[in-house]
Amino acid sequence: MVDQSLKVLKGILRKDGLRFTTQRQSVWDEIRGSHEHRDAEDIYMCIRNNDVRVSRATVYRTIDVLVKNRLVRKMDVGDGRSRYEPRLDDEHHDHMICEKTGDIIEFFNEELENLQEKIANDHGYTVVRHVHQLFVKPFPE
What we know:
Elements: H1 4-15, H2 22-32, H3 40-49, H4 56-68, E1 72-76, E2 82-86, E3 94-98, E4 104-107, H5 110-122, E5 133-136
Helix pairs in contact: 2-3, 2-4, 3-4
């Protein structure tokens, strides 16, 4: 049985006029298999360290297609480098980014979600999607 996400990958590549290759599958596997928020260069280096011959251009182009087709979420954490995470189950979460360490902490808060919906409703709107990032620093010692 073929992995469902592999079928999806093949479909979006075909739709975007790209061939399915082991290199493109490696990009998808590398992102999908990690819980980290990594930039394209980190993803490229991990693939190369696994002895897969792939160009940077293929990695960047494949990531762009994955983002465009909502298989991967692109994050701007304020340092000029985009980070990527898989959107496998599309489970919603928000992020805290530590300005001191660069750590990215995922969180979900039902109260916050309800408050955002209430604010939108109070202004005559409904939330379709949102990106919520808190930039934080540790308490002073």
